[in-house]
Amino acid sequence: MNMEFNVRGMDFTRAGEASAKIKKALQLVGMEVSTIRKAVIVAYEAELNIVIHARQGILTLFVHPDRVEIIAEDEGPGIPDIALAMQEGYSTAPPHVREMGFGAGMGLPNIKRCSDHLDIDSRVNSGTRLKATIFNNINGE
Questions:
Q1: How far is the C-alpha of 113 from the C-alpha of 88, rounded, in Å?
Q2: Is the separation of the CB atoms in 70 and 132 below 8 Å?
Q3: 141 occurs within a structural domain
């Protein structure tokens, strides 16, 4: 199963819709609860990163029997220093976004924590592509 969602920058009224649909889809196909929880966190954080930082992007879900893959591709400013962006609390979110309660600098660290494998490719002034893989825990742990 594949699902694709268009995400618009600064569209906070729809932020989280894609990750909510991903949760329902994973429940319907019978993924383990722990896999669903991790995938939803990854999807939500990736979706919010597009909303906060990019003009637009696409969030794609690929469901395999043994794993879930989430790819977020955006047309945004890119990440000049990925290692710095991976540090908890580091944020480039503008003040008006922080005033709404977003942009605390936990997005990428949360994605990494919930992923079994994470690849990030980013080009300054072009955009970012993030691919997170979560293996389906068949023991339900």
A1: 11
A2: yes
A3: no
CATH number for the domain that contains residue 65 = 3.30.565.10
Contact assessment for residue 136 and residue 65, using Cβ atoms and an 8 Å cutoff: yes
Assess if residue 140 is contained within a domain.
no
In a domain, 113, yes or no: yes
Amino acid identity, position 127: G
d(CA 141, CA 47): 26
Three-class DSSP labels, 24-49: HHHHHCCCCHHHHHHHHHHHHHHHHH
Instruction: Give the chain's domain count.
Output: 1
Please tell me the pTM assigned to this model: 0.95
Which tens digits make up the pLDDT trace of 97-119?
999 999 999 999 999 999 999 99
Yes or no: say if 118 and 135 are a contact pair by the CB < 8 Å rule. Answer: no
